[in-house]
């Protein structure tokens, strides 16, 4: 009996042990299943697969939803919050994080993670102050609890915080730190995110060329992680840079690749935006027909996903495209659709744009009265919308011009210009002021053309001059842009007083103009359309770039350019004249001195005149006079930086030559490794009479103030930016930029050629010598030697440069060709001494 009881006891214990083993096994299986679901959901989140990530959270969190004491409850809750934030549902994400994990050692990592995700949500909602306070607390908690694996993410958030508050240098430092620590911790995701964010900083600084390599590396990183959607978004960032740099072909190609991925991944919001941006690229190139199908697809997708605001935008853009194609029925159809969509979302503010489109359509159909009525209604509705006001005023000016109502036409053209100027004056940054007027020059062009038609030649010149070099003029106390533009009589008096002739060019789509003002009188010359002149300039520049000698075989483009631009001035400017040219548009890229003059003895125009270039008639302070010289600052022959900037074998020789020519002046010289960007400001450049650079230059077309002179590398980099030059006042008689394309990076209608020349003039230099195109440093060294020989002999910069060029023209070798002496010009317009 006792043996039976003992046996039953042993059997019971065995059964209980088996139950315990089964329960333990099930618990381990649950734990393993949960861990795998969480790992995959987290991976999907990092890859941008939000639908898959949500599915993982839904499945994995089921056993833990009622167990707030468990670690998995908090892991899934925090992951769900992050998914919400990435979906644009930041408020819902923050609501989940209102409750925090238990404050005990086992939950320290989750407590840090929860707060980190909360910072991200606060930043998405723009609650910057709360985000900053919480991030400071998170950093302290991380340090206290040794959760250093979160360091890269925290540094990325710190960088994003600085970026959101417009502190780019601090943001850059934070992202660089994240880059470093993510490498040390083998965190490829945060490493790639840091690269992308560094690229975004470059975009906001307009340094698109520097952003592209960062985005390219980020794109490659995302592709390695199989984060296809993020790779496509980064590709879209590359496309933005390419389009801003004017490389529309590259931008379109990048967007096309992004579209391919977005279509495959079913990422319709991103796809809709990319398609619309491709349409915008074609609109920027005035290729309205190609823009249409992209806008149509973007519109269809926006409607499908319920993005009504975007749908109204794409419908409106279609109306603009069809208006430019003069397909008035289609334009009206999409404009009406845009109006209806705006009504759905109660977007009454932008209905003015649809009314403006309607007026344009009516005008295009010849319905003058209806168009005028609509434009007047726009004026009434858009009292606080300057861009709509100037569009409507200018359109009314054109309408009344066509109907012969001259007084009304002038009133509305004047109103359009006043509105533009008032809006421009409110801009704080020079960058925006420059680009602002460049986009709106067509209004000035229409007004000038109308005034010429009515015989108001002097008033037309005043309107043209009112658009020129406004930012540059505002810089100088003695040359601030007046409320009223100087009269033509004042320009005439300046010509008489200085013995200088002025040639002011104005290019426009229908026809162009030249005003010639000499000490004895003035004359208007009507020129061909802008497009014809542009083609001739491009063709002649190809002749020069091809190392041809235009005197040996006259090229048709050279002959045509002389006949169009200068032939009418021949009797007004006798040989030996001094002339200041105010170029416009593509003429900023032409050196007039290189144009051959036909006759018994063919020669270049430089043989007939001494020439200087000015941004406007109002800014030419004594172009051919010179103050005494006392000192020279030379920075040149730097150490090579990377493979992109090859060594300049003759730069050292150039520095030595200038030093010998100006031996009588006090000299400060930085060359070799000492020629760093920081020495420019440290040397107090405002005290020098002459400043000379002998180095490479890098032109930034999209943001010319980010153009740079390439110097020796230091802890602060190797580029002296044009923007940095602006910050240091000068009183130099002459600044010489002996570098490739030192004159400027881009021509802006109104402001002219903007880049290093513009920056030095704005800083206060009286004369700047710089180059229009790349040339060999051996010929440059020779030209500079002869230039400073003449400067040392007492010649003005314009006269000295002319003599140096003539010596090369009359030499027997290749350097007689305009390719070698033609790029350098004298620019005037700085502060009068």
Structure description:
It is built from 33 helices and 18 strands. The protein is α/β, with parallel strands linked by helices. Among the domains are: about 490-615, no CATH class; about 630-830, Rossmann fold (3-Layer(aba) Sandwich), CATH 3.40.50.1460. It has a 6-stranded mixed β-sheet with strand order 9-8-10-14-17-18, with helices on both faces. A hairpin with a 5-residue loop joins strand 5 and strand 6 (about 605). Helix 21 packs antiparallel against helix 22 and helix 27 (about 650-660) runs parallel beside helix 31. The radius of gyration is 34 Å and the shape is globular.
CATH architecture of the domain at 631-828: 3-Layer(aba) Sandwich
Mean pLDDT: 85
The percentage helix is: 55-70%
Question: How many runs of DSSP E, i.e. beta strands?
Answer: 18
Q: CATH class of the domain at 631-828, please?
A: Alpha Beta
The DSSP helix count reads 33
Strand order of the largest sheet: 9-8-10-14-17-18
**Spatial shape:** globular
How does the helix and strand content classify structurally? Answer: alpha/beta
Please tell me how large the radius of gyration is. 34 Å
- Major β-sheet, in short? 6 strands, mixed
Instruction: Compute the separation of the termini in Å.
Output: 125 Å
Q: Provide the β-strand percentage band.
A: 5-15%
CATH topology term of the domain at 631-828: Rossmann fold
